[in-house]
Specification:
- The complex is a heterodimer.
- Chain A is an alpha+beta fold.
- Chain A has one domain.
- Helix content of chain A is 29%, strand content 26%.
- Chain A contains nine helices and eleven strands.
- In chain A, a hairpin with a 5-residue loop joins strand 7 (274-280) and strand 8.
- In chain A, helix 3 runs antiparallel to helix 8 and helix 7 (239-252) runs antiparallel to helix 8 (257-269).
- Chain B has a domain at 14-93: RNA polymerase sigma factor, region 2, helix turn helix motif (Rna Polymerase Sigma Factor, Chain: A, Orthogonal Bundle).
- Chain B has helices at residues 16-25, 30-49, 51-67, 79-92, 95-110, 120-142, 145-155, 161-168, 172-191.
- Chain B is globular and about 55 Å long.
- Classes of the chains: A alpha+beta, B mainly alpha.
- At the A-B interface, helix 1, helix 2 and helix 5 of A face helix 2, helix 3, helix 6, helix 7 and helix 9 of B.
C-alpha cells in the first residue's frame, strides 16, 4: 500500500462539530473586540509621549561621519577603528540629546531590493520611498506617502549590459518568481523601470504598535528607558530576535530619545553584534556599520545565508540604513535607508489633503 | 515594515495574504481566514492528537495567528503553510498526547477483536492489515519529532516541500532528505513482511 495512504488511514480526521467551530469563532471575535478596547485605553497614556525627555546635555563625541553626497567613501581621518560597543555607546549619548517634543513622529525612508534581470545579465536596484507621519495622539490617523521610485541597473557595467539588451523599460519574470518590492505589477510578473506617482493615504496604523516581539506595546509612554527595562520587555523572545526588536524599536517606533538611547545600550550589551567599520550606504552617506544575524528568515529569492547591517551616524545617533547582505560575498539584497526621522509639530501630508 | 500597509480592493475573492493585511486595520477580517481554514487545521490536529485535543487547540492556532498577524510576511510564503507552522508549534507542546495516541493505536491494531466471523482468507488479510497498522504506528512513534513533523505535514497536510520548509522554518533541502529517509522506513515497515502489498510509489 502507498505509504501516505496508509498513514492517512491509520490517522483518520475526526469530525469538526458545528459547536466547536462556533465556539472557536467566538473566541476569535473576543480577541478582535479586545483589540479595539486596548486601542481606546491607550489614548490617555499616549498624550504623555513626546513631552518627556532627558535633557542630559550630551556632547557628540565623534565626528567620523557626515553626509557625503557624491557617495565617495571615507575622507575622514579615523584614528582607529571603533568597536561595536564604542559606536553604539557614542550613538546612545548623541541620540539622548535629540529633541523629542512634538505631535508627530515623521520619517522618510527608501526601501529597495537588488536582483538580476530575468536573463541574469545585470543587476537591478528597485526602490520606493515611504514617508510616514505617526501621531502621538493614538486616536489620530497615521499618514503615509508612498512613491515607487523605479528600477535601474546598479553599476556602469550593469548599465552597459542593459543598453546592450535594448534598454528595456520593463522586465517580465516567471509567474510567482518575481523578485523585488510589492507593487501593482508584481502579480503579473512585471518589474517596471519608470517611477510611479506619489500615493498619499492615512490609516489607523497598527504595525509599529504591536509588532515588536509579537506583543503589543500598549503603553507607549511606559516603554522602558533603560537597557534592562527593554530587555525585560522583550524577555520572551530568543537572543537573536532581541537584536531585531531593539533595532526595530530604534528605527521605526515613535518613542522618546531616551528609549532610543536605551535601545543602543541594549544592543551594545548583546553578543553577536560586530563592527564593520566605516561604510557608505545606498544614499551615499557615510556612517559606522554594525552587523548581526537577524532572526528573520532571508528574502525568498536568495537561498544562502544573510547578515543584517545597521549603519548609524554616531555623531547624531541617527540610524541611517538597515541592509540585508549575503553572508558569503556581502552583496546587497535589500535595504531600508532612513532619509529623515524627527519629532515635530507639523505633518505636511495632513496639510496637503 | 510599512510595506505591509498596502491594502487591496476588497471586492472579489480576496487572497489570504490580503486578508491578513486587511486585518491590521479591521481585525474582524481575520475571521474570514478562520472560516477558510478551520476545517483542515482541525482535521490536521485531530489526526495527530485526537479529537479532544483538536477541539481544544484548533481555535488556539487562529488566535495565535491573529496576535502575530503583523509578523506574517507574504514575500516569504503563503498563509496556509504559516497556519500549519503555528499548528506544528502547538503540537510540539503536546508531544505526549501524540505519543499516547500512537501507542494506543499500535496496541489496538496488534490485537484486533476476534469476534468477527468470515472466511478464513478475509480474517488472514484483516490480521495482516492490522499488523501492518501496528508496524506503521510503531514506526511513526519511533520517528524523531522533526522527522514526524515533516512527514505528517506532507502526508496529512499535503504541503509541498517548499511549504513544509516554510511552516517549520527549515531549509528546503532538509525537507527532501528527511522525507526520503522517513518514507524508506515506512515502506520497509509496510512492505517488509508481505512485499506483495507494497510497491506503489507515493
Amino acid at each position: 500500500m502507498d505509504d501516505y495512504r496508509a498513514v492517512r488511514e491509520l490517522l483518520p480526521a475526526p469530525p469538526l462539530s458545528p459547536e466547536v467551530r462556533r465556539a472557536g469563532r467566538e473566541r476569535l471575535a473576543g480577541a478582535f473586540a479586545h483589540e479595539g478596547v486596548r486601542r481606546r485605553r491607550r489614548a490617555a497614556r499616549w498624550s504623555a509621549l513626546g513631552l518627556g525627555l532627558a535633557g542630559a546635555a550630551a556632547v557628540a563625541l565623534l565626528a567620523t561621519s557626515s553626509v557625503s553626497p557624491g557617495g565617495s567613501p571615507a575622507k575622514h581621518n579615523v584614528v582607529a577603528p571603533m568597536s561595536a560597543n564604542q559606536i553604539l555607546l557614542a550613538a546612545a549619548t548623541s541620540v539622548a540629546a535629540t529633541p523629542d517634543a512634538g505631535a508627530w513622529w515623521g520619517s522618510k525612508q527608501i526601501d529597495g531590493r537588488e536582483f538580476y534581470d530575468p536573463g541574469h545579465h545585470y543587476l537591478l536596484r528597485q526602490s520606493k520611498s515611504m514617508e510616514s507621519w505617526i501621531p502621538a495622539d493614538p486616536e489620530a490617523l497615521t499618514w503615509y506617502r508612498e512613491t515607487y521610485l523605479g528600477a535601474v541597473p546598479v553599476s556602469s557595467e550593469g548599465e552597459a549590459a542593459w543598453r546592450a539588451a535594448g534598454a528595456p523599460s520593463t522586465w517580465t519574470y516567471e509567474q510567482g518568481k518575481t523578485p523585488g518590492l510589492i507593487t501593482d505589477d508584481r502579480a503579473e510578473g512585471i518589474v517596471r523601470a519608470a517611477p510611479g506617482k506619489p500615493w498619499t493615504f492615512s490609516s489607523e496604523d497598527w504595525d509599529f504598535r504591536i509588532v515588536l516581539a509579537g506583543k503589543p506595546l500598549t503603553r507607549m509612554n511606559e516603554v522602558p528607558t533603560t537597557p534592562e527595562g527593554l530587555r525585560a520587555l522583550f524577555s520572551d523572545v530568543d537572543g537573536r530576535a532581541l537584536v531585531d526588536n531593539a533595532v526595530s524599536l530604534l528605527v521605526y517606533a515613535p518613542v522618546t530619545s531616551e528609549t532610543r538611547a536605551a535601545a543602543y545600550r541594549l544592543l551594545a550589551s548583546l553578543p553577536g553584534v560586530s563592527a564593520v567599520g566605516q561604510v557608505t550606504d545606498t544614499l551615499g552617506r557615510t556612517g559606522q556599520a554594525l552587523e548581526y544575524q537577524s532572526a528573520q528568515r532571508p528574502v525568498t529569492e536568495y537561498a544562502g545565508g544573510t547578515r543584517t547591517r545597521l549603519v548609524i551616524d554616531p555623531a547624531t545617533g541617527k540610524p541611517l540604513s538597515i541592509e540585508t547582505r549575503a553572508t558569503d560575498d556581502g552583496h546587497l539584497l535589500e535595504f531600508t535607508a532612513i532619509q529623515e526621522s524627527v519629532w515635530t509639530d507639523d505633518n505636511p501630508l495632513k496639510e496637503q489633503k | 515594515m510599512t510595506a505591509r500597509l498596502r491594502l487591496v480592493d476588497p471586492s472579489g475573492a480576496i487572497s489570504d495574504a490580503d486578508l491578513v493585511e486587511a486585518s491590521y486595520r479591521r481585525p474582524e477580517r481575520f475571521g474570514e481566514l478562520y472560516d477558510r481554514y478551520i476545517g483542515e487545521i482541525h482535521a490536521y490536529l485531530g489526526r495527530r492528537l485526537g479529537q479532544e485535543a483538536a477541539d481544544d487547540l484548533a481555535a488556539e492556532v487562529f488566535l495565535t495567528a491573529f496576535r502575530k498577524r503583523t509578523t506574517f510576511d507574504r514575500e516569504r510564503g503563503e498563509v496556509r503553510p504559516w497556519l500549519y507552522g503555528i499548528a506544528a508549534n502547538l503540537i510540539a507542546v503536546h508531544r505526549r498526547t501524540e505519543t499516547r495516541k500512537l501507542a494506543a493505536l499500535r496496541r489496538s491494531a496488534a490485537a484486533p477483536a476476534g469476534t468477527d466471523h468470515g472466511h478464513e482468507e478475509r480474517v488472514v488479510s484483516r490480521v495482516d492489515a492490522a499488523n501492518e497498522q501496528a508496524r506503521l504506528a510503531a514506526e511513526l512513534q519511533a520517528l524523531s519529532d522533526g522527522d514526524r513533523d515533516v512527514l505528517l505535514l506532507s502526508a496529512l497536510g499535503e504541503l509541498s516541500h517548499g511549504e513544509v520548509a516554510e511552516a517549520l522554518g527549515i531549509p528546503y533541502g532538509t525537507v527532501g532528505s528527511r522525507l526520503s529517509r522517513v518514507r524508506r522506513k515506512l515502506r520497509a515497515a509496510l512492505g517488509g513482511v508481505n512485499p506483495l502489498l507494497g510497491g506503489s510509489d507515493g
